[in-house]
Amino acid sequence: MIKVKIVNLVVTTDLKHKLHLIKIASTFSNVEYNPEQFPGLVFRIKDPKTVALLFSSGKVVCTGARSITSARKAIKNVIDSLKKIDIKIKTRPILHVQNLVGVGKLDFTLKLDKLAVKLRNVEYEPEQFPGLVYKMKEPSPSSFLLFSNGKLVCTGTKSEESMKRCLIQLIKDLKKVI
Length: 178
Description:
The protein has helices spanning 21-27, 68-83, 112-118, 160-177, and strands spanning 4-14, 31-33, 41-45, 50-54, 59-65, 96-105, 122-123, 132-136, 142-146, 151-157. The protein is an alpha+beta fold. The protein has 2 domains: 9-98, TATA-Binding Protein (2-Layer Sandwich), CATH 3.30.310; 106-177, TATA-Binding Protein, CATH 3.30.310.
């Protein structure tokens, strides 16, 4: 079985507290807020290096974490920052994983042009992008970027276990056609 390293985790949570984004934006230097472009405030966190999108409803999307522990730490950093300007979050946020992104390498190379013909649910336009996109519905919805040197990117799963099941299915699907 190939080893896949998680390189990005996207989580959501609800702080259950309305947020005054203009006040937050005018206080912190590590934020961007341009409501004409995007309704959320971009809150950049140094440790762990992540980005949290804060919405006035209290909803938060955190991206860039490499583990649930670092995502939790990033959300805690945001809450601690908000406390400094008298925004007291009373609830302990529950994190919901929305997407995992993992990278890995197969122990064999791929002929992408042949795979594009033999596999279903693929997109392959080598003039546009050097990889093949393979979309999978079972065992869970996911997408793979496959490269001729055997490197791959997996996205769309919500747990490492789900990602492992999709990788097993990917290898079965590839072995049927190569």
